[in-house]
């Protein structure tokens, strides 16, 4: 018999390259879907508290378990109200969106002074005058919102600032909606509904620098292998005379931004004792403000900020299944 060439499936996906660290633990939303209807915010954010499991009656049409009780994991996200600190306006240029200007609220929280220096009371007349003169160029409005970490138990005071797109109706309708919410608090119940779907965008757990076995999932070499066991057998041929990008190598693992699509919101509430297990969530504590129970798991460790976006692929509307039981047993020994 002739020599039989060895072949195996590719180890590790090449979809996310380079595998480097995210620039910040706050996720950056690079795409906003279109929305048809009355003006509204297309996103929200909260802090990941932990996971538990629920028992519900399956209401998905076509499911093999339709009408039966099923148990699956859920993630609890604490979602304190967001403060709309400013409005940012965009026009369309050759290379994409470009800011026309922004208008900040007259009433700023003291916590916001930790990250941006704005006078507590200032006149925003000039900002609105600039926007009024450029109304014809206006194509997109985004709200600059600030999180409220002090109202939770995560131990941070400094808020996170990020943009949330306002969409629906005409540009004038969006402008009027932005004026109404500027300087006010927005709750998650005003943005999303129970039973609907959202896209979850977050920064995954950081693993540090890891070798190719853990980072790419390659097999270890035999124990008599020369020099190394937890490495690749060859880093490449003589020609081409360089190490190709597809060769599994050691490097940074984790702490990368990831998006999970069409995660169903099972429950929204404002009484944290309804979902807080005995002794609180591990590495988080008690739920003190509003919360959202999301089906399945989401990226990132406890206490990390996660962004919830209007779904770009699925249906935002839906009917929440009937919750029979949510497990509140202690997670401290997990």
Verbal overview:
The chain has about 325 residues and is mainly beta. It contains three helices and 15 strands. The chain has helices at about 125-135, 170-180, 210-215; strands at about 40, 45-55, 70-80, 80-95, 95-105, 140-145, 160-165, 185, 195-205, 205-210, 250-255, 255-270, 290-295, 305-310, 320-325. Strands 1, 4, 5, 6, 7 and 8 form a six-stranded antiparallel sheet that branches. Strand 4 and strand 5 form a beta hairpin.
Give a concise summary.
This protein is mainly β and 334 residues long.
Indicate the proportion of strand residues: 25-35%
Total beta-strand segments: 15
Distinct helical segment count: 3
Query: Largest beta sheet, briefly?
Result: 6 strands, antiparallel
Residues in helices, as a percent range: under 10%
Give the structural class: mainly beta
Per the principal axes of the C-alpha atoms, what is the gross shape? Answer: globular
Mean pLDDT: 90
SSE order: EEEEEHEEHEEEHEEEEE
Regions with little confidence, pLDDT below 50 for 5+ residues:
none
Distance between the termini: 55 Å
Radius of gyration: 24 Å
Topology:
Blueprint: E1 40-41, E2 43-57, E3 69-78, E4 82-93, E5 96-104, H1 125-133, E6 138-146, E7 161-167, H2 171-181, E8 185-186, E9 197-203, E10 206-210, H3 212-216, E11 251-254, E12 257-269, E13 291-295, E14 305-309, E15 322-326
Antiparallel strand pairs: 1-7, 2-3, 2-14, 2-15, 3-13, 4-5, 4-6, 4-8, 6-7, 9-12, 9-14, 10-11, 12-13
